[in-house]
Amino acid sequence: MPAQLRPDVTLTPTDDGAVLLDERSGRYYQLNRTALLVLRSLLDGRTAEETAADLSARHPVTADRARADVDRLHETLRTAGLVTAGPGGGGPAGTGAGTTG
């Protein structure tokens, strides 16, 4: 099952990536461009492994590091209650999620 944003989470693209608003808590989460690319890939139903392969093809990072980053970002978003389910055939995801609110 692909990752999905929770119904009460709003994704707003910015010049530098995106902002996620958790309407339940009022907290904002900032994603850099790479994290947004990863999130969109997972929301589109791609697995963590496929997402990591795309990431390592676009950036100077090993496949293992890309996979660890994808897994870490997904886990961060899942733990924060921003996404449900997970990337099919993969785990969580990585770079660039932080709270700002």
Automatic annotation (TrEMBL):
- Which stretches does the entry tag as region Disordered? 79-101
**Signal peptide residue numbers:** none
Which residue windows does the record flag with biased composition (Gly residues)? 86-101
What NCBIfam families does the record tag this protein with?
Answer: lasso_PqqD_Strm
Q: What is this protein called?
A: Lasso peptide biosynthesis PqqD family chaperone
The species is Kitasatospora xanthocidica
